[in-house]
Every structure is written in structure tokens, then in C-alpha cells.
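User: C-alpha cells in, sequence out, please.
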């Protein structure tokens, strides 16, 4: 029986993935050079990639998980956290330069960098002024691998304290799939109901996963 030939696009995607993996390993080894013995840098880099996946997952990994990698010391772990913090701040700065609704791609880039690779669910609220410029990006809840408790009244209370005119809800799905759950939909409606009482606009609820983002507004859920 003759083998079925691979589709050219599939081959190209596989080659691109392999190249990206090689580039990730090479960059990781460079980052490890100053904090890990030369004889161990390649092994440590390979173990990190094999254990966590890509660079985003490595720098977002919890410290308690990183210290389990033999040869990875506190200096390297601090470097990882500094790289992640720098990436988050750079993308957030870009997203804050203009009104959020007119720089939506910059906002999505920011929330992907900040949340896509987190090992636990995190819920954030982006509070906007009358011009839809970001006033404050605040952590609402830090949860488990599949749940972060959110209290709608607290989200709205904080909006009133900040004199915000609108808000955008954001949270991640550590599973990777950004599809909203029924619980996500129900909670969003509760926030919207509470916001409506005070004439606050909920522009969107964005769910972030490794596989992409989901917008409640684009899905017709807001």
C-alpha cells in the first residue's frame, strides 16, 4: 500500500514548529549561561522545555515547580521572572498609549502575554475613564487550575472608587481552550446587571488561553 502524502501546509507547519522549538532552546541556553555551569546549561534548557513547553510557560511557571529542575538555581529563576515582568510591562505600556477600543490588538497582545501561560486561573478587571483610556488594571481573584472566585459587587464597587466609566473583564483558562463556560457566562451577566445600576459600561469579557482568545462581544454574549 502506498503511503498517503502529507499536505504541504501540514509539512510547513511542522517545520515551523520544529524551528521555533530549536530557537527557544538556543535562547534559553543563552539566558542560562550566566547562572548555570556551562556543562549543565544545555541539559537544564532541555529539561525546562520538556517539562513546561515553550518559553512563555517556563517564565510563567511557579517557583515551586522551577526549583525541581536539577541545576536551576535562584539566579536563573529570578532572571526568568524579570524577563516575564519586562514583557508584561512593555505590552501593557503599548496598550495604554491610546484609547483601548481603538487599539484593540495592543490590548489583546498585553492580556496574552500577561495571562496565557499562567498555571492557575486569574481574573482581572481593566477600569477605563470616559475616553476609554486605561485607569487601572487590577487583580480581582487568583484561583485554582479551573476556577477563580469573583464577586460582581466588589468589581463594581472598585469601579466607583476609581470613578471609572467602563470596564473590561479578563481571565485565563489554564487548560488552553478560551471557550467560555456556562459559569463564565453567568458571572458576566451578574457583573453587567450590577454595572447597569450605576450606568457603567462593560465593553467586553476576554478569555485568554494558549490556543488564543475569546471575546464575549464577538461571540454575541454581551
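Assistant: Sequence out:
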Amino acid at each position: 500500500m502506498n503511503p498517503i502524502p502529507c499536505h504541504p501546509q501540514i509539512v510547513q507547519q511542522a517545520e515551523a514548529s520544529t524551528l521555533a522549538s530549536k530557537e527557544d532552546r538556543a535562547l534559553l541556553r543563552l539566558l542560562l549561561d550566566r547562572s548555570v555551569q556551562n556543562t549543565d546549561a544545555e541539559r537544564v534548557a532541555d529539561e525546562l522545555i520538556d517539562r513546561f513547553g515553550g518559553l512563555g510557560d517556563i517564565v510563567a511557571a511557579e517557583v515551586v515547580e522551577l526549583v525541581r529542575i536539577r541545576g536551576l538555581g535562584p539566579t536563573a529563576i529570578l532572571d526568568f521572572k524579570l524577563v516575564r515582568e519586562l514583557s508584561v510591562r512593555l505590552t501593557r505600556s503599548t496598550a495604554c498609549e491610546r484609547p483601548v477600543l481603538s487599539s484593540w490588538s495592543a490590548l489583546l497582545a498585553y492580556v496574552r502575554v500577561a495571562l496565557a501561560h499562567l498555571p492557575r486561573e486569574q481574573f482581572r478587571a481593566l477600569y477605563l475613564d470616559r475616553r476609554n483610556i486605561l485607569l487601572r488594571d487590577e487583580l480581582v481573584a487568583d484561583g485554582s487550575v479551573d476556577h477563580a472566585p469573583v464577586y460582581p459587587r466588589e468589581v463594581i464597587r472598585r469601579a466607583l472608587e476609581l470613578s471609572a466609566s467602563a470596564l473590561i473583564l479578563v481571565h485565563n483558562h489554564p487548560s488552553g481552550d478560551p471557550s467560555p463556560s456556562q459559569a463564565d457566562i453567568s458571572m458576566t451577566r451578574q457583573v453587567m446587571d450590577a454595572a447597569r445600576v450605576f450606568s457603567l459600561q462593560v465593553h467586553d469579557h476576554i478569555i485568554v488561553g494558549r490556543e488564543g482568545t475569546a471575546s464575549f462581544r464577538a461571540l454575541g454574549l454581551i
